[in-house]
Automatic annotation (TrEMBL):
Transmembrane intervals: none
The protein's name in its UniProt record: Integration host factor, actinobacterial type
NCBIfam families for the chain: actino_IHF
Integration host factor-like helix-two turn-helix domain residues: 35-100
Entries under Pfam families matching the protein: H2TH_5
Length: 103
């Protein structure tokens, strides 16, 4: 499937929109790292908040203090969540398993 041809104005707008989304996801991860946001609260907003919903669960977990790539991979494997899963794509059972594992 070929990508649509964009005018320079459309391309600039798309690039600006993508940069804003990346910035919003970075701010979310920083808020989690500071302790301003909790994983349960963030996951509650995943279905309604597009920024949260499109953020990978692994990235959210790596934002937690003390959770690096190895610990996050182990946690995701333990809960049966694919490493590429986004927050909005978590099922109820996966979400609950993740929250139980974080306690």
């Amino acid at each position: 499937m070929a990508l649509p041809t964009l005018t320079p104005e459309q391309r600039a707008e798309a690039l600006k929109k993508a940069a804003a989304a990346r910035t919003a996801r970075k701010e979310l991860r920083d808020a989690i790292a500071r302790g301003d946001e909790t994983i349960p609260a963030v996951l509650d907003r995943a279905k309604s908040d597009q920024v949260v919903g499109k953020t990978k669960v692994a990235d959210l977990l790596k934002s937690l203090p003390g959770y690096g790539p190895a610990k996050v991979s182990q946690l995701l494997e333990q809960t049966g969540i694919d490493a590429s899963r986004r927050a909005a794509g978590l099922g109820d059972r996966q979400r609950q398993a993740l929250l139980d594992a974080l306690k």
